[in-house]
Here is the input.
Amino acid sequence: MPLIDNLVNRKLVLYRYYPVSVPSIVRIISVLILCCSLTSFSPVSYSAPLNTSDKKQNILIIHQTNNRVSQELVTQLKSNKNLANYNIHHAGWNGEATNLETINRQQLIIAIGSKTTKSLLDANISAPILSILMPEHLAKSFQKLYNTKGNWSSLVIDQPLERKFHLITAIMGKNKKTGVLLGSYTKDLEKPLKRAARETRQSITIEHINNPEEIPRSLNTLNNTVNILLTLPDPVIYNKNTIRGILLSTYREKLPIIGFSKAYVKAGAIAAVYSKPEQISKQTAVITNNFLKNNFFSQNIYQPNDFSVALNHKLAKSLGINIKSESEILKQIKQAERRR
Here is the structure.
């Protein structure tokens, strides 16, 4: 299989009983698991100067210093013309002691990622917080865990479920059988998934995963019954130890995958809808302006408004699927959303 040979590293073995080559996607995997990793959290240190000499409102962006996506988003936010009327500062998350006094003087904190968000919530920050680049399952979990925190909202990275099914329709057509693996972080999505599939004239088959050892069996079940696999950012299912095996197994069975990020498409999915940093920045500016005007968030959780499409034409062709251009698919999805 020449296509797979370009993706594999012959030094690794999958699932204990797959003595085969695997995708050489170590760097890509590090980006994928950003959406679903659950690691320990540390507080944040602030050292940027605070401008209090004018009447502009102060916004502090707190981010992880060692994360490329976070730093790119900081650049986008600082250059956003719709935020030009504010004093915008940024501080890197580095695990040192939190400067609560400085942080609480801000009119708004923009926390990039779940780690910085949790460190601020653990520190009982009184300043309003807008979290971005948050997985939806963590945003909902934090809402329950920190239910006494007022003036806090999240712009999540997860695309609306209907949008994912519109992508499937644009690629595969209507009335296709979609398979989904649900783990402990996404099990509550069963009813919304079924509703979204019904509204977009697709059918769906769901397999529940309690631990990674169940993945091969569940994949084998889906391989025999569905036309496409829709992935969701659940760290129990899709992590650095399982992604390679899932990609190889589905490729062998010629089962196309809809990814949940652009990196997943590079790794071996045929398509994904995702939001670019500039698109996230644009929506963040709108939410920020509305909040600082009204002093409240209109939603506890915001889903991405604007989005892009990533396609793997070469892989799709090897699976016998003829995919339209990105612009055509993007147009079809947006038209479908406007008809709702």
About this structure: Residues 1-52 have pLDDT under 50 and may be disordered. The chain has two domains: 2-32+159-274+307-338, 58-157+278-302. Residues 65 and 71 are 7 Å apart (CA to CA).
